[in-house]
Amino acid sequence: MEALLTYLDMGGYAPFVWPCFGLAAAVMLYFFVASRRELRQREQRLEVLRAASPRRRRDTIGQEAPS
Question: Would you say residue 33 has pLDDT above 90?
């Protein structure tokens, strides 16, 4: 238990180190949530655009595009 407390104390620098870890974790969490939200919005927009398209094309992987 003493070793854990010594580690968490960070040689006396704990008041500086742990808030930085917390801030970095908060920023990464924010970017993760924002990216997921943006992905869902773009996927919904893509579905709307696909549904509104007058002509739906199949994937032409490995084939020439129609002209």
Answer: yes
Query: Are residues 20 and 27 in contact, defined by beta-carbon separation less than 8 angstroms?
Result: no
Backbone angles phi, psi at 66, to 5 degrees: -65, 145
Those residues whose C-beta lies under 8 Å from the C-beta of residue 41, and which sit 6 or more positions away, are none
Cα separation, 9 vs 52, whole angstroms: 60
Q: What is the 3-state secondary structure (H, E, C) of 15-66?
A: HHHHHHHHHHHHHHHHHHHHHHHHHHHHHHHHHHHHHHCCCCCCCCCCCCCC
Residue 17 clears pLDDT 80, i.e. is over it: yes
Supply 7's token pair.
Answer: 């580690």
CA atoms within 13 A of residue 6's CA, in its CB half-sphere: 3
Please state the φ and ψ torsions of residue 65, each to the nearest 5 degrees.
Answer: -70, 145
